[in-house]
Prior knowledge:
The chain is α+β, with helices and mostly antiparallel strands.
Amino acid sequence: MKTITLWNEGWRFAKCPDGPADPAAVLAGEAVTLPHTWYADGDYYQGDAAYQKSFSLTLAPGQRAFARFNAVDKVCEIYLNGKHIGGHKGGYTRFALELTDALRPGENLLTVLVNNDAGETVSPLMGDFASFGGIYRDAELVIAGPVHFDLQYHGSEGVLFRTALRPDGAGTVTCEAHICGGPGQVHYTLADAEGHVVARGDESLTLAKPHLWNGEADPYLYTAAATLTVDGETVDTVSLPVGFRSISVDPDRGFFLNGQHLKLRGVAKHQDTAGVFCAAGPKHWEQDIGLIREMGANAVRLSHYPHPQPVYDLCDERGLVVWAEIPMLKLNETRELLDNAKQQLTEMILQNLHHPSVCFWGIQNEVGLMGAKPYMPGKLRILNDLAHALDPSRPTTSSNCSAVPIDSDLNRITDVTCYNIYYGWYYGDMPDHAAFLDDFHAAHPAMPLGISEYGVDTNTAYHSDAPKVNDYTEEYQALYHETVYPYMAQRDFVWGSFVWNMFDFVSPIRRAANIQFRNLKGLVTHDRLTRKDSFYYYKAIWSQEPFVQIAEKRFEKRAAGTMTVKVYSNQPRVTLTAGGRTWTENTANGIARFAGVPLDMGDNTVTAAAGDLTDKAVFTRVDQPEESYVYVDNGPGLHVRDWFVDADEEARMFPNDAYSLRNTIGELLACPAAMKAIDTIIPKLSKPMRTGPDTYTLEKAIPYLYPDCPEELAKALNSELNKIPK
Ligand code: GCU
């Protein structure tokens, strides 16, 4: 029988800035326990590193040993006793390598050489998140008998279970076993949630009346198991959760689960969490999925790459509809990149196709950020066809951005398509959502449209009673979500929407709002300790769990004599008590608003009640507006903050009467002196600037056009541009 042992203890680790370590030599490194990442805020090391583990292992005759890694970020080559035993390209999927032939009696030395450079051949090539680096998910030692299910089959368990519903309502499981080491007999069983075997078979399983997996309403799961026998003796088993459900997407009416319409109320999430970053574990995953369910979301976009297996398991169990995707965020012309994308897509699909929660395979995110190139559609069609060939049962999807026009071919590749839209943040105004959605639907009446991202950054330290774009206040984020979500909710043809993002996440290129290295668009902070006000907005309109929550609690100090108290609740009416007076208001769009509530100097306790539910807040009347609530932004009018600039230098670096990195690419292209400076100081920018969209500022575009651009060079270019008067 196969044994699987966690192999997380007893590793040594070292960064290798001078190039890969000698895999045959003992590594002089620090002792670490997996999961491990070398990322630290402010120390985004991208390069070579090594892990090493010494171990002894004696195999019985015929036994085979494998090292299985649930993810190594991003590229690795693995050696046993100095002998190369294989490698893996891609930081988010599982793979197993055989140790058997290189094992020796006594002590063995396993060396994993890892590299997380951006590079040009292994996705992701860039992104607004970190390629953290490390063996950051569990490692396992697997000992198998001579005949076993092939755990090297694209990192799967060696057995694939494909569930389907027949027109007569019967559930089928088509089973596909990949056996190594010789012939064997495979027998399959299906057990219900109580563990009773309800179907048996040698190739497939049929259940006349399956209990359906029905999302959050009833996430019912079965367990499919495969048993491999040789001469009547069991030599291997694999069991995986499965579920029966049907899905479809209609361009006018949206998403259907088991024939019932289900508006997908989604959020997106990255895998990192404060302190441990990507090396998160079960308690973090439980917490994240728990928060998503608490808010009442019924769908999650697990972006921008495959997430750990247990996260998909949790989504199965909690009834979340999942969008899974590969890390395809920049598509160049190389054959190697496409081959690698095919490999990562194959691994993602074959490792995850048993999960009933997974309903969409995403093949790209914003590859057209700098303009759709003529070679892109062909390459994406190859990925799309591959996804269909591996799994005809699920729709493919993709995310385009504002740089991709509505009539672009990039909107005609996948079964459904989506846009990441940021009206009211990076560009445009909040009401622009309506026209965009309607225009797209009119132009593509047969293409189901979803919104794969929308959101704004906020630092919960900042507050305003007149919130506006770019002030980073908690109140602007709340106003934005309260305003824009209804545009999507009211249109049946929008099959789903995904808030960007459920949690603040690490982005080494970001410096916004006085919090470094974070994208702050989360509804919950990176440490998961603070639910921002917007979280309660969605809870009020999505969750069935009765609650009442006074908004703006962190905006405690008030300089005016009255205030509008905003209360989020999913109850029809809310009563507010303050200073001995009582008011009652109906809720609309999850909000009850109480205008003109008087405040006395000092502390004022305000209580909101709906039935038995109550919430309390204290607002303190002060003489002067609280200065610390205001984010001092010296670049007025800009919708996006810089990616490297110290706040104090801003006024000097971005004068109104001279050119700077804050000019759009179009403005710079139109100014010969500016282009001369660019060609001289950062010639690498010149070509992509001329071939991509011209509406972004160069400051916003540099991380995408030239991700490794040294900060000094960018600053030098900015100073040179400053010498050119407008
Ligand atoms: C993009 C992108 C995300 C990014 C987001 C943002 O559209 O897909 O990865 O984090 O926008 O700017 O916050």
